[in-house]
Amino acid sequence: MIRVLIMMLCLSALPAQGEEVVAGMNQNRIAITANFDGSEILIFGAVKREEPIPSADALGVIITVAGPSRPIAVRRKEKRLGIWVNVDSVEVDSAPSFYAIATSAPMPEVLADIEDLRHKISIPRAIRSVGAPMHVKDSASFTDALIRIRIKNKLYQLLEGQVELSEETLFNTSIALPSNLTEGDYKARILLTRSGRVVDIYETEIGVHKVGLERWIYALAHERPLVYGLFSLFIAIAAGWTASAIFRYFRA
Amino acid sequence: MQIYLPIAEVSVNAFLLLGLGGIVGMLSGMFGVGGGFLMTPLLFFIGIPPAVAVATEANQIVASSFSGVLAHLKRKTVDLRMGTVLLIGGLIGAALGVQLFNHLKSLGQVDLLVKLCYVVFLGIIGGLMFIESLNAIRRSKKPGAKVIRKKHNWVHNLPFKMKFRTSGLYISVIPPLVVGVLVGVLAAIMGVGGGFIMVPAMIYLLGMPTKVVIGTSLFQIIFVTAFTTLLHATTNFTVDMPLAVLLLVGGVVGAQIGAQIGTKLKAEQLRILLAMMVLAVCGKLALDLLLMPSELYSIGPAGHG
Predict the structure, then answer these.
(1) How far is the CA of B124 from the CAs of B30, B118, B131, B150, B182, in angstroms?
(2) Which among B282, B281, B279, B262 is positioned nearest to B31, based on CA atoms?
(3) Nearest to B249 among A71, A217, A243 (CB)
(4) Could you say which of B111, B233, B299 has the minimum Cβ distance to residue A232?
Protein backbone atom coordinates (compact mmCIF):
# COMPACT_ATOMS: atom_id res chain seq x y z
CA MET A 1 0.00 0.00 0.00
CA ILE A 2 2.80 2.35 0.95
CA ARG A 3 4.67 1.43 -2.22
CA VAL A 4 1.63 2.25 -4.25
CA LEU A 5 1.30 5.59 -2.48
CA ILE A 6 4.96 6.37 -3.09
CA MET A 7 4.57 5.43 -6.71
CA MET A 8 1.56 7.62 -7.04
CA LEU A 9 3.43 10.48 -5.43
CA CYS A 10 6.36 9.96 -7.82
CA LEU A 11 4.00 9.86 -10.73
CA SER A 12 2.24 12.99 -9.67
CA ALA A 13 5.62 14.72 -9.43
CA LEU A 14 6.19 14.13 -13.15
CA PRO A 15 5.14 16.73 -15.71
CA ALA A 16 1.41 16.75 -16.43
CA GLN A 17 0.36 14.44 -19.26
CA GLY A 18 -3.41 14.21 -18.72
CA GLU A 19 -5.19 10.99 -17.87
CA GLU A 20 -4.68 7.53 -19.33
CA VAL A 21 -6.48 4.21 -19.04
CA VAL A 22 -4.69 1.10 -17.87
CA ALA A 23 -6.87 -1.98 -18.13
CA GLY A 24 -6.97 -5.75 -18.08
CA MET A 25 -9.41 -8.61 -18.44
CA ASN A 26 -9.84 -11.91 -16.68
CA GLN A 27 -9.66 -13.68 -20.04
CA ASN A 28 -8.60 -12.56 -23.48
CA ARG A 29 -9.66 -15.66 -25.30
CA ILE A 30 -12.92 -17.52 -25.03
CA ALA A 31 -13.07 -21.16 -26.00
CA ILE A 32 -16.36 -22.48 -27.34
CA THR A 33 -16.43 -26.07 -26.14
CA ALA A 34 -19.13 -28.74 -26.37
CA ASN A 35 -20.77 -27.61 -23.13
CA PHE A 36 -20.33 -23.86 -23.72
CA ASP A 37 -23.35 -21.97 -22.47
CA GLY A 38 -22.15 -18.42 -22.35
CA SER A 39 -19.34 -16.77 -20.53
CA GLU A 40 -18.61 -13.69 -18.49
CA ILE A 41 -15.70 -11.36 -18.96
CA LEU A 42 -14.48 -9.11 -16.23
CA ILE A 43 -12.90 -5.90 -17.35
CA PHE A 44 -11.01 -3.84 -14.79
CA GLY A 45 -8.45 -1.10 -14.73
CA ALA A 46 -7.32 2.22 -13.40
CA VAL A 47 -6.94 5.79 -14.49
CA LYS A 48 -3.29 6.74 -14.65
CA ARG A 49 -2.65 10.42 -14.07
CA GLU A 50 0.35 12.58 -13.34
CA GLU A 51 -1.51 15.41 -11.72
CA PRO A 52 -4.11 15.83 -9.02
CA ILE A 53 -7.61 14.72 -9.92
CA PRO A 54 -9.22 17.56 -11.84
CA SER A 55 -12.22 18.49 -9.76
CA ALA A 56 -14.16 20.57 -12.25
CA ASP A 57 -15.40 17.95 -14.74
CA ALA A 58 -17.11 14.66 -14.00
CA LEU A 59 -15.11 11.57 -14.92
CA GLY A 60 -16.82 8.89 -16.96
CA VAL A 61 -15.78 5.39 -18.02
CA ILE A 62 -17.37 3.66 -21.00
CA ILE A 63 -16.58 0.07 -21.88
CA THR A 64 -17.72 -1.49 -25.14
CA VAL A 65 -17.30 -5.02 -26.44
CA ALA A 66 -18.11 -5.60 -30.12
CA GLY A 67 -18.27 -8.85 -32.04
CA PRO A 68 -17.33 -9.20 -35.69
CA SER A 69 -19.50 -7.09 -38.01
CA ARG A 70 -21.42 -8.54 -40.90
CA PRO A 71 -23.91 -7.20 -43.43
CA ILE A 72 -27.42 -8.36 -42.61
CA ALA A 73 -30.90 -8.06 -44.01
CA VAL A 74 -33.84 -6.97 -41.87
CA ARG A 75 -37.19 -8.06 -43.25
CA ARG A 76 -40.68 -6.94 -42.36
CA LYS A 77 -43.86 -8.98 -42.65
CA GLU A 78 -47.06 -7.57 -44.04
CA LYS A 79 -50.48 -9.08 -44.54
CA ARG A 80 -50.90 -10.16 -48.15
CA LEU A 81 -53.89 -12.22 -49.27
CA GLY A 82 -54.68 -13.05 -45.67
CA ILE A 83 -51.28 -14.35 -44.65
CA TRP A 84 -48.22 -12.70 -43.16
CA VAL A 85 -45.40 -12.52 -45.67
CA ASN A 86 -41.95 -10.91 -45.74
CA VAL A 87 -42.41 -7.88 -47.98
CA ASP A 88 -39.95 -5.06 -47.43
CA SER A 89 -36.33 -5.63 -46.57
CA VAL A 90 -33.54 -3.26 -45.67
CA GLU A 91 -29.89 -4.23 -45.81
CA VAL A 92 -27.75 -3.05 -42.96
CA ASP A 93 -24.21 -2.70 -44.28
CA SER A 94 -22.49 -3.58 -41.09
CA ALA A 95 -23.87 -4.62 -37.73
CA PRO A 96 -21.82 -6.20 -34.96
CA SER A 97 -22.95 -9.72 -34.12
CA PHE A 98 -22.57 -8.77 -30.46
CA TYR A 99 -22.39 -5.37 -28.82
CA ALA A 100 -22.30 -4.50 -25.16
CA ILE A 101 -21.84 -1.05 -23.75
CA ALA A 102 -21.30 -0.43 -20.06
CA THR A 103 -21.02 3.04 -18.54
CA SER A 104 -20.25 4.46 -15.13
CA ALA A 105 -23.25 6.84 -15.23
CA PRO A 106 -26.27 7.45 -17.47
CA MET A 107 -25.24 7.88 -21.11
CA PRO A 108 -25.97 11.62 -21.53
CA GLU A 109 -23.76 12.38 -18.52
CA VAL A 110 -20.71 10.46 -19.69
CA LEU A 111 -20.84 11.01 -23.42
CA ALA A 112 -21.48 14.05 -25.58
CA ASP A 113 -23.38 13.44 -28.77
CA ILE A 114 -20.56 14.73 -30.95
CA GLU A 115 -18.12 12.29 -29.38
CA ASP A 116 -20.59 9.45 -29.88
CA LEU A 117 -20.72 10.38 -33.54
CA ARG A 118 -16.96 10.40 -33.80
CA HIS A 119 -16.22 7.17 -31.96
CA LYS A 120 -19.45 5.26 -32.75
CA ILE A 121 -20.14 4.24 -29.19
CA SER A 122 -23.89 3.96 -28.61
CA ILE A 123 -25.72 0.95 -30.10
CA PRO A 124 -27.48 2.83 -32.97
CA ARG A 125 -24.16 4.43 -33.94
CA ALA A 126 -22.30 1.10 -33.88
CA ILE A 127 -24.59 -0.07 -36.68
CA ARG A 128 -23.80 1.30 -40.10
CA SER A 129 -26.70 1.57 -42.50
CA VAL A 130 -26.07 3.45 -45.69
CA GLY A 131 -29.49 3.56 -47.22
CA ALA A 132 -32.77 1.80 -47.69
CA PRO A 133 -34.47 1.09 -51.03
CA MET A 134 -36.50 4.02 -52.37
CA HIS A 135 -39.89 2.47 -51.66
CA VAL A 136 -39.14 1.94 -47.96
CA LYS A 137 -39.97 5.22 -46.27
CA ASP A 138 -39.41 4.29 -42.65
CA SER A 139 -35.95 2.71 -42.80
CA ALA A 140 -35.30 3.82 -39.21
CA SER A 141 -37.90 1.37 -37.96
CA PHE A 142 -35.86 -1.45 -39.50
CA THR A 143 -32.71 -0.56 -37.57
CA ASP A 144 -34.86 -0.06 -34.47
CA ALA A 145 -36.22 -3.57 -34.98
CA LEU A 146 -32.72 -4.96 -35.40
CA ILE A 147 -31.68 -3.42 -32.09
CA ARG A 148 -34.89 -4.52 -30.37
CA ILE A 149 -34.53 -8.16 -31.50
CA ARG A 150 -30.85 -8.35 -30.61
CA ILE A 151 -31.44 -6.75 -27.20
CA LYS A 152 -34.11 -9.37 -26.56
CA ASN A 153 -31.60 -12.10 -27.43
CA LYS A 154 -29.02 -10.45 -25.14
CA LEU A 155 -26.76 -9.91 -28.14
CA TYR A 156 -26.94 -6.16 -27.67
CA GLN A 157 -26.66 -4.87 -24.14
CA LEU A 158 -26.87 -1.37 -22.75
CA LEU A 159 -25.51 -1.49 -19.21
CA GLU A 160 -25.87 2.08 -17.99
CA GLY A 161 -24.22 2.67 -14.64
CA GLN A 162 -22.82 -0.86 -14.53
CA VAL A 163 -19.20 0.24 -14.49
CA GLU A 164 -18.15 0.57 -10.89
CA LEU A 165 -15.88 3.56 -10.49
CA SER A 166 -14.19 4.16 -7.17
CA GLU A 167 -12.18 7.20 -6.11
CA GLU A 168 -12.26 8.38 -9.74
CA THR A 169 -9.39 5.94 -10.30
CA LEU A 170 -10.30 2.27 -10.20
CA PHE A 171 -13.05 0.80 -12.32
CA ASN A 172 -14.45 -2.61 -13.13
CA THR A 173 -17.40 -4.22 -14.85
CA SER A 174 -18.51 -7.61 -16.02
CA ILE A 175 -20.14 -8.39 -19.35
CA ALA A 176 -22.13 -11.55 -19.91
CA LEU A 177 -21.64 -13.23 -23.27
CA PRO A 178 -24.61 -15.37 -24.38
CA SER A 179 -24.22 -18.90 -25.70
CA ASN A 180 -25.08 -18.06 -29.30
CA LEU A 181 -21.82 -16.24 -29.97
CA THR A 182 -20.36 -15.80 -33.42
CA GLU A 183 -16.73 -16.78 -33.77
CA GLY A 184 -14.16 -14.09 -34.35
CA ASP A 185 -12.09 -11.37 -32.75
CA TYR A 186 -14.10 -9.26 -30.34
CA LYS A 187 -12.95 -5.69 -29.88
CA ALA A 188 -13.03 -4.24 -26.39
CA ARG A 189 -12.75 -0.49 -25.94
CA ILE A 190 -12.37 1.43 -22.73
CA LEU A 191 -13.02 5.13 -23.06
CA LEU A 192 -12.30 7.75 -20.48
CA THR A 193 -14.41 10.88 -20.62
CA ARG A 194 -14.44 14.23 -18.88
CA SER A 195 -17.75 16.10 -19.18
CA GLY A 196 -18.66 13.90 -22.09
CA ARG A 197 -15.39 14.50 -23.94
CA VAL A 198 -13.24 11.47 -24.69
CA VAL A 199 -9.79 11.97 -23.15
CA ASP A 200 -8.30 8.52 -23.68
CA ILE A 201 -9.11 5.24 -25.40
CA TYR A 202 -7.68 1.83 -24.66
CA GLU A 203 -8.37 -0.98 -27.12
CA THR A 204 -7.81 -4.68 -26.90
CA GLU A 205 -9.06 -7.88 -28.48
CA ILE A 206 -10.77 -10.99 -27.20
CA GLY A 207 -10.53 -14.04 -29.40
CA VAL A 208 -13.68 -16.16 -29.45
CA HIS A 209 -13.04 -19.53 -31.06
CA LYS A 210 -14.35 -23.06 -31.11
CA VAL A 211 -11.94 -25.63 -29.71
CA GLY A 212 -11.56 -29.40 -29.56
CA LEU A 213 -14.30 -31.51 -31.09
CA GLU A 214 -16.38 -28.44 -31.94
CA ARG A 215 -13.46 -26.95 -33.90
CA TRP A 216 -12.80 -30.25 -35.65
CA ILE A 217 -16.42 -30.77 -36.73
CA TYR A 218 -16.79 -27.19 -37.91
CA ALA A 219 -13.54 -27.30 -39.88
CA LEU A 220 -14.33 -30.64 -41.47
CA ALA A 221 -17.83 -29.51 -42.45
CA HIS A 222 -16.47 -26.45 -44.24
CA GLU A 223 -13.22 -27.74 -45.65
CA ARG A 224 -14.17 -31.24 -46.76
CA PRO A 225 -17.98 -31.20 -46.96
CA LEU A 226 -18.37 -34.46 -48.87
CA VAL A 227 -16.25 -36.39 -46.38
CA TYR A 228 -18.17 -34.72 -43.58
CA GLY A 229 -21.53 -35.59 -45.14
CA LEU A 230 -20.58 -39.24 -45.58
CA PHE A 231 -19.15 -39.32 -42.09
CA SER A 232 -22.38 -37.85 -40.63
CA LEU A 233 -24.39 -40.54 -42.38
CA PHE A 234 -22.04 -43.25 -41.19
CA ILE A 235 -22.14 -42.02 -37.59
CA ALA A 236 -25.93 -41.70 -37.73
CA ILE A 237 -26.47 -45.19 -39.15
CA ALA A 238 -23.92 -46.75 -36.81
CA ALA A 239 -25.55 -45.07 -33.80
CA GLY A 240 -29.00 -46.07 -35.02
CA TRP A 241 -28.00 -49.68 -35.54
CA THR A 242 -26.20 -49.89 -32.19
CA ALA A 243 -29.14 -48.41 -30.33
CA SER A 244 -31.57 -50.86 -31.90
CA ALA A 245 -29.20 -53.77 -31.23
CA ILE A 246 -28.98 -52.77 -27.57
CA PHE A 247 -32.75 -52.46 -27.42
CA ARG A 248 -33.23 -55.94 -28.89
CA TYR A 249 -30.65 -57.36 -26.48
CA PHE A 250 -32.58 -56.00 -23.50
CA ARG A 251 -35.87 -57.34 -24.80
CA ALA A 252 -34.48 -60.84 -25.49
CA MET B 1 -27.01 -30.26 -19.45
CA GLN B 2 -26.37 -27.62 -22.09
CA ILE B 3 -24.58 -28.59 -25.27
CA TYR B 4 -23.16 -26.25 -27.89
CA LEU B 5 -23.94 -27.26 -31.46
CA PRO B 6 -20.99 -26.40 -33.69
CA ILE B 7 -22.87 -25.88 -36.96
CA ALA B 8 -26.11 -24.38 -35.65
CA GLU B 9 -23.98 -22.20 -33.32
CA VAL B 10 -26.49 -22.31 -30.49
CA SER B 11 -26.50 -23.95 -27.10
CA VAL B 12 -29.41 -26.23 -26.23
CA ASN B 13 -30.32 -28.74 -23.55
CA ALA B 14 -29.12 -32.24 -24.49
CA PHE B 15 -32.01 -33.96 -22.68
CA LEU B 16 -34.54 -31.84 -24.53
CA LEU B 17 -33.07 -33.09 -27.82
CA LEU B 18 -33.06 -36.71 -26.62
CA GLY B 19 -36.68 -36.39 -25.53
CA LEU B 20 -37.80 -34.81 -28.79
CA GLY B 21 -36.02 -37.58 -30.68
CA GLY B 22 -37.71 -40.23 -28.57
CA ILE B 23 -41.26 -38.96 -29.02
CA VAL B 24 -40.89 -38.37 -32.74
CA GLY B 25 -39.11 -41.71 -33.13
CA MET B 26 -42.06 -43.48 -31.52
CA LEU B 27 -44.44 -41.96 -34.06
CA SER B 28 -42.01 -42.94 -36.81
CA GLY B 29 -42.10 -46.56 -35.74
CA MET B 30 -45.88 -46.58 -35.40
CA PHE B 31 -46.82 -44.98 -38.70
CA GLY B 32 -43.85 -45.54 -40.98
CA VAL B 33 -43.44 -41.81 -41.44
CA GLY B 34 -40.02 -40.27 -40.90
CA GLY B 35 -41.45 -37.93 -38.31
CA GLY B 36 -39.67 -35.05 -40.00
CA PHE B 37 -42.88 -33.09 -40.46
CA LEU B 38 -43.11 -32.87 -36.67
CA MET B 39 -39.43 -32.62 -35.86
CA THR B 40 -38.49 -29.84 -38.26
CA PRO B 41 -41.03 -27.31 -36.85
CA LEU B 42 -40.08 -28.38 -33.31
CA LEU B 43 -36.45 -27.63 -34.07
CA PHE B 44 -37.48 -24.15 -35.30
CA PHE B 45 -39.24 -23.58 -31.98
CA ILE B 46 -36.16 -24.40 -29.89
CA GLY B 47 -34.10 -21.91 -31.88
CA ILE B 48 -32.25 -24.01 -34.45
CA PRO B 49 -31.81 -22.00 -37.69
CA PRO B 50 -34.26 -23.34 -40.34
CA ALA B 51 -31.55 -24.27 -42.86
CA VAL B 52 -29.71 -26.32 -40.23
CA ALA B 53 -32.94 -27.91 -38.99
CA VAL B 54 -33.92 -29.08 -42.49
CA ALA B 55 -30.50 -30.52 -43.36
CA THR B 56 -29.88 -32.14 -39.99
CA GLU B 57 -33.34 -33.62 -39.90
CA ALA B 58 -32.60 -35.37 -43.20
CA ASN B 59 -29.54 -36.93 -41.59
CA GLN B 60 -31.50 -37.99 -38.53
CA ILE B 61 -34.28 -39.56 -40.62
CA VAL B 62 -31.71 -41.81 -42.33
CA ALA B 63 -30.68 -43.27 -39.01
CA SER B 64 -34.09 -43.52 -37.40
CA SER B 65 -35.51 -45.21 -40.50
CA PHE B 66 -32.55 -47.58 -40.64
CA SER B 67 -33.60 -49.54 -37.57
CA GLY B 68 -37.20 -49.47 -38.79
CA VAL B 69 -36.28 -50.83 -42.20
CA LEU B 70 -34.24 -53.62 -40.59
CA ALA B 71 -37.28 -54.65 -38.58
CA HIS B 72 -39.44 -54.65 -41.72
CA LEU B 73 -36.87 -56.54 -43.82
CA LYS B 74 -36.84 -59.24 -41.18
CA ARG B 75 -40.64 -59.46 -41.35
CA LYS B 76 -40.40 -59.43 -45.18
CA THR B 77 -42.75 -56.46 -45.46
CA VAL B 78 -40.60 -54.48 -47.93
CA ASP B 79 -41.31 -54.49 -51.67
CA LEU B 80 -37.74 -53.98 -52.85
CA ARG B 81 -38.68 -53.62 -56.50
CA MET B 82 -41.29 -50.95 -55.84
CA GLY B 83 -38.86 -49.31 -53.39
CA THR B 84 -36.19 -49.05 -56.09
CA VAL B 85 -38.56 -47.44 -58.59
CA LEU B 86 -39.69 -44.92 -55.95
CA LEU B 87 -36.05 -44.32 -55.08
CA ILE B 88 -35.00 -43.42 -58.62
CA GLY B 89 -37.74 -40.79 -58.68
CA GLY B 90 -36.73 -39.65 -55.20
CA LEU B 91 -33.11 -38.99 -56.12
CA ILE B 92 -34.15 -36.84 -59.08
CA GLY B 93 -36.61 -34.96 -56.88
CA ALA B 94 -34.08 -34.34 -54.11
CA ALA B 95 -31.59 -32.82 -56.55
CA LEU B 96 -34.27 -30.45 -57.86
CA GLY B 97 -35.45 -29.68 -54.34
CA VAL B 98 -32.05 -28.60 -53.02
CA GLN B 99 -31.68 -26.23 -56.00
CA LEU B 100 -35.08 -24.73 -55.22
CA PHE B 101 -34.27 -24.47 -51.50
CA ASN B 102 -31.04 -22.56 -52.15
CA HIS B 103 -32.80 -20.23 -54.57
CA LEU B 104 -35.58 -19.42 -52.08
CA LYS B 105 -33.04 -18.88 -49.32
CA SER B 106 -31.37 -16.14 -51.33
CA LEU B 107 -34.78 -14.49 -51.80
CA GLY B 108 -35.55 -14.56 -48.07
CA GLN B 109 -38.82 -16.40 -48.67
CA VAL B 110 -37.77 -19.90 -47.69
CA ASP B 111 -39.65 -19.88 -44.35
CA LEU B 112 -42.89 -18.80 -45.96
CA LEU B 113 -42.81 -21.34 -48.76
CA VAL B 114 -41.78 -24.16 -46.46
CA LYS B 115 -44.68 -23.31 -44.14
CA LEU B 116 -47.13 -22.92 -47.03
CA CYS B 117 -46.04 -26.32 -48.35
CA TYR B 118 -46.66 -27.82 -44.93
CA VAL B 119 -50.12 -26.28 -44.58
CA VAL B 120 -51.26 -27.30 -48.07
CA PHE B 121 -49.89 -30.85 -48.05
CA LEU B 122 -50.71 -31.67 -44.47
CA GLY B 123 -54.18 -30.16 -44.83
CA ILE B 124 -55.14 -32.11 -47.92
CA ILE B 125 -53.64 -35.41 -46.85
CA GLY B 126 -54.72 -35.21 -43.23
CA GLY B 127 -58.27 -34.37 -44.30
CA LEU B 128 -58.48 -37.17 -46.87
CA MET B 129 -57.04 -39.75 -44.51
CA PHE B 130 -59.35 -38.69 -41.71
CA ILE B 131 -62.49 -39.05 -43.82
CA GLU B 132 -61.30 -42.30 -45.35
CA SER B 133 -60.43 -43.95 -42.07
CA LEU B 134 -63.69 -42.78 -40.48
CA ASN B 135 -65.53 -44.49 -43.34
CA ALA B 136 -63.41 -47.61 -42.97
CA ILE B 137 -64.17 -47.83 -39.28
CA ARG B 138 -67.89 -47.30 -39.91
CA ARG B 139 -67.85 -50.06 -42.56
CA SER B 140 -66.03 -52.52 -40.32
CA LYS B 141 -68.61 -51.95 -37.58
CA LYS B 142 -71.43 -52.96 -39.94
CA PRO B 143 -71.19 -56.73 -40.25
CA GLY B 144 -71.63 -58.09 -43.76
CA ALA B 145 -70.67 -54.85 -45.48
CA LYS B 146 -67.91 -55.43 -48.01
CA VAL B 147 -64.77 -53.32 -48.29
CA ILE B 148 -64.90 -51.99 -51.81
CA ARG B 149 -61.49 -51.50 -53.36
CA LYS B 150 -61.24 -50.04 -56.83
CA LYS B 151 -59.18 -52.54 -58.75
CA HIS B 152 -58.98 -50.65 -62.01
CA ASN B 153 -58.45 -46.92 -62.19
CA TRP B 154 -56.55 -44.76 -64.69
CA VAL B 155 -53.26 -45.85 -63.11
CA HIS B 156 -53.69 -49.24 -64.72
CA ASN B 157 -53.96 -47.85 -68.25
CA LEU B 158 -50.45 -46.31 -68.40
CA PRO B 159 -47.57 -47.89 -70.36
CA PHE B 160 -44.29 -49.42 -69.07
CA LYS B 161 -45.97 -51.99 -66.88
CA MET B 162 -43.93 -53.90 -64.38
CA LYS B 163 -44.65 -56.77 -62.04
CA PHE B 164 -44.32 -56.09 -58.32
CA ARG B 165 -44.65 -59.53 -56.81
CA THR B 166 -44.41 -58.62 -53.12
CA SER B 167 -47.25 -56.14 -53.51
CA GLY B 168 -49.15 -58.38 -55.91
CA LEU B 169 -49.38 -55.59 -58.49
CA TYR B 170 -48.90 -55.31 -62.23
CA ILE B 171 -48.83 -51.58 -62.95
CA SER B 172 -46.99 -48.92 -64.90
CA VAL B 173 -43.74 -47.51 -63.42
CA ILE B 174 -44.82 -43.92 -64.18
CA PRO B 175 -47.01 -43.31 -61.09
CA PRO B 176 -44.43 -44.64 -58.59
CA LEU B 177 -41.71 -42.59 -60.32
CA VAL B 178 -43.81 -39.42 -60.09
CA VAL B 179 -44.60 -40.11 -56.44
CA GLY B 180 -40.86 -40.62 -55.88
CA VAL B 181 -39.93 -37.29 -57.47
CA LEU B 182 -42.53 -35.41 -55.44
CA VAL B 183 -41.31 -37.00 -52.22
CA GLY B 184 -37.70 -36.20 -53.13
CA VAL B 185 -38.51 -32.49 -53.60
CA LEU B 186 -40.31 -32.41 -50.26
CA ALA B 187 -37.41 -34.18 -48.54
CA ALA B 188 -35.04 -31.49 -49.74
CA ILE B 189 -37.11 -28.36 -49.05
CA MET B 190 -39.14 -29.36 -46.01
CA GLY B 191 -36.73 -31.57 -44.11
CA VAL B 192 -39.15 -34.46 -44.11
CA GLY B 193 -38.86 -38.06 -45.19
CA GLY B 194 -42.06 -37.67 -47.16
CA GLY B 195 -43.80 -40.67 -45.65
CA PHE B 196 -46.94 -38.63 -45.08
CA ILE B 197 -47.24 -38.19 -48.87
CA MET B 198 -45.92 -41.56 -49.88
CA VAL B 199 -47.95 -43.78 -47.56
CA PRO B 200 -51.35 -42.47 -48.72
CA ALA B 201 -50.16 -42.38 -52.35
CA MET B 202 -49.12 -46.02 -52.14
CA ILE B 203 -52.39 -47.08 -50.57
CA TYR B 204 -54.87 -45.02 -52.60
CA LEU B 205 -53.06 -44.36 -55.88
CA LEU B 206 -50.96 -47.46 -56.41
CA GLY B 207 -53.26 -49.79 -54.49
CA MET B 208 -50.47 -51.48 -52.53
CA PRO B 209 -51.43 -53.72 -49.60
CA THR B 210 -51.15 -51.82 -46.30
CA LYS B 211 -48.73 -54.30 -44.73
CA VAL B 212 -45.91 -53.63 -47.23
CA VAL B 213 -46.50 -49.88 -47.44
CA ILE B 214 -44.62 -48.88 -44.31
CA GLY B 215 -41.51 -50.99 -44.93
CA THR B 216 -41.28 -49.94 -48.57
CA SER B 217 -41.67 -46.25 -47.80
CA LEU B 218 -38.97 -46.47 -45.12
CA PHE B 219 -36.68 -48.17 -47.64
CA GLN B 220 -37.10 -45.32 -50.12
CA ILE B 221 -36.84 -42.64 -47.42
CA ILE B 222 -33.47 -43.94 -46.20
CA PHE B 223 -31.76 -43.48 -49.54
CA VAL B 224 -33.45 -40.24 -50.51
CA THR B 225 -32.71 -38.55 -47.18
CA ALA B 226 -29.11 -39.82 -47.28
CA PHE B 227 -28.73 -38.20 -50.69
CA THR B 228 -30.38 -35.00 -49.42
CA THR B 229 -28.03 -34.91 -46.42
CA LEU B 230 -25.03 -35.10 -48.73
CA LEU B 231 -26.41 -32.34 -50.97
CA HIS B 232 -27.07 -30.01 -48.04
CA ALA B 233 -23.68 -30.84 -46.49
CA THR B 234 -21.80 -29.98 -49.67
CA THR B 235 -23.75 -26.90 -50.80
CA ASN B 236 -24.98 -25.27 -47.57
CA PHE B 237 -22.70 -26.71 -44.84
CA THR B 238 -25.76 -27.01 -42.62
CA VAL B 239 -25.66 -30.60 -41.34
CA ASP B 240 -25.05 -30.55 -37.59
CA MET B 241 -23.63 -33.91 -36.61
CA PRO B 242 -23.95 -33.69 -32.79
CA LEU B 243 -27.54 -32.48 -33.15
CA ALA B 244 -28.36 -35.40 -35.46
CA VAL B 245 -26.74 -37.95 -33.14
CA LEU B 246 -28.64 -36.69 -30.08
CA LEU B 247 -31.96 -36.69 -31.91
CA LEU B 248 -31.47 -40.17 -33.27
CA VAL B 249 -30.31 -41.85 -30.07
CA GLY B 250 -33.67 -40.83 -28.62
CA GLY B 251 -35.31 -41.56 -31.95
CA VAL B 252 -34.08 -45.11 -32.41
CA VAL B 253 -35.27 -46.23 -29.01
CA GLY B 254 -38.60 -44.49 -29.64
CA ALA B 255 -38.93 -46.14 -33.06
CA GLN B 256 -38.53 -49.63 -31.57
CA ILE B 257 -41.24 -48.95 -29.00
CA GLY B 258 -43.42 -47.43 -31.71
CA ALA B 259 -43.06 -50.47 -33.98
CA GLN B 260 -44.27 -52.66 -31.09
CA ILE B 261 -47.31 -50.49 -30.48
CA GLY B 262 -47.97 -50.39 -34.23
CA THR B 263 -48.32 -54.16 -34.52
CA LYS B 264 -50.94 -54.17 -31.74
CA LEU B 265 -53.20 -51.52 -33.27
CA LYS B 266 -55.58 -51.99 -36.19
CA ALA B 267 -54.70 -50.35 -39.53
CA GLU B 268 -57.80 -48.11 -39.38
CA GLN B 269 -56.97 -46.93 -35.89
CA LEU B 270 -53.39 -46.20 -36.94
CA ARG B 271 -54.58 -44.20 -39.90
CA ILE B 272 -57.06 -42.11 -37.97
CA LEU B 273 -54.42 -41.32 -35.34
CA LEU B 274 -51.97 -40.26 -38.01
CA ALA B 275 -54.63 -38.17 -39.74
CA MET B 276 -55.43 -36.34 -36.51
CA MET B 277 -51.76 -35.62 -35.88
CA VAL B 278 -51.23 -34.37 -39.41
CA LEU B 279 -54.23 -32.03 -39.06
CA ALA B 280 -52.99 -30.72 -35.70
CA VAL B 281 -49.58 -29.76 -37.11
CA CYS B 282 -51.28 -28.24 -40.14
CA GLY B 283 -53.58 -26.14 -37.94
CA LYS B 284 -50.71 -24.84 -35.84
CA LEU B 285 -48.72 -23.79 -38.90
CA ALA B 286 -51.76 -22.21 -40.54
CA LEU B 287 -52.40 -20.13 -37.41
CA ASP B 288 -48.80 -18.89 -37.53
CA LEU B 289 -49.38 -17.62 -41.04
CA LEU B 290 -52.83 -16.15 -40.40
CA LEU B 291 -52.42 -14.48 -37.02
CA MET B 292 -50.41 -11.31 -36.68
CA PRO B 293 -46.94 -12.25 -35.46
CA SER B 294 -45.75 -10.55 -32.25
CA GLU B 295 -42.54 -9.50 -34.02
CA LEU B 296 -43.03 -8.34 -37.58
CA TYR B 297 -39.34 -7.97 -38.29
CA SER B 298 -36.78 -10.69 -38.75
CA ILE B 299 -33.02 -10.70 -39.19
CA GLY B 300 -31.20 -12.74 -41.78
CA PRO B 301 -27.86 -12.72 -43.53
CA ALA B 302 -27.74 -10.22 -46.39
CA GLY B 303 -28.79 -12.02 -49.54
CA HIS B 304 -28.37 -11.20 -53.16
CA GLY B 305 -32.08 -10.84 -53.91
Answers:
(1) 21, 10, 11, 21, 15
(2) B262
(3) A243
(4) B233
Contact A218 B255 (CB under 8 A): no
The residues near B246 (Cβ < 8 Å, ≥ 6 apart) are B3, B14, B17, B18, B21
Task: Classify B50 in phi/psi space as left (phi over 0), alpha (psi -120 to 50) or beta.
Answer: alpha
Of the candidates A213, A218, A192, the one whose C-alpha atom is nearest the C-alpha of residue A203 is A192
Which residues of A fall within a CB distance of 8 Å from B239?
221, 228-229, 232
Inspect the interface and report whether the beta carbons of B296 and A145 lie closer than 8 Å: yes
Query: Could you tell me which residue, B273 or B302, shows the higher pLDDT?
Result: B273
Domain ranges, ordered by start, for chain B: 2-290
CB nearest to B248's CB, from A78, A181, A236:
A236
The pair phi, psi for residue B169, each rounded to 5°, is: -125, 150
Cα–Cα dist B182/B97, whole Å: 9
Share of chain A above pLDDT 90, in %: 8
Q: pTM (2 decimals)?
A: 0.73
3-state per-residue secondary structure call for chain B: CEEEECCCCEEEEHHHHHHHHHHHHHHHHHHCCCCHHHHHHHHHHCCCCHHHHHHHHHHHHHHHHHHHHHHHHHCCCCCHHHHHHHHHHHHHHHHHHHHHHHHHHHHCCHHHHHHHHHHHHHHHHHHHHHHHHHHHHHHHHCCCCCCCCCCCCHHHHCCCEEEECCCCEEEECHHHHHHHHHHHHHHHHHCCCCHHHHHHHHHHHCCCCHHHHHHHHHHHHHHHHHHHHHHHHHHCCCCCHHHHHHHHHHHHHHHHHHHHHHHHCCHHHHHHHHHHHHHHHHHHHHHHHHCCCCCCEEEEECCCC
**Rounded-to-integer distance, Cα B279 and Cα B286, Å:** 10
Between CA A246 and CA A250 the distance in angstroms is: 6
Dmax of chain B from CA atoms? 65
Q: What is the pLDDT of residue A11?
A: 47
Residue B127 sits at the chain A interface (C-beta within 8 Å): no
At B52-68, the pLDDT tens digits run 888 888 888 887 777 77
Run of H or E residues at A194: strand A184-194
Nearest to B225 by CA among B34, B13, B18: B34
Which comes out higher in pLDDT, residue B181 or A128?
A: B181
* pLDDT per position as a tens digit, B83-112: 899 999 999 999 999 888 888 877 777 777
- In whole angstroms, give the CA distance from residue A93 to residue A66: 16
Chain B hits for A225, Cβ within 8 Å: 233-235, 237
Read off the pLDDT band of A2 (50, 70, 90): low
**ipTM > 0.90 (yes/no):** no
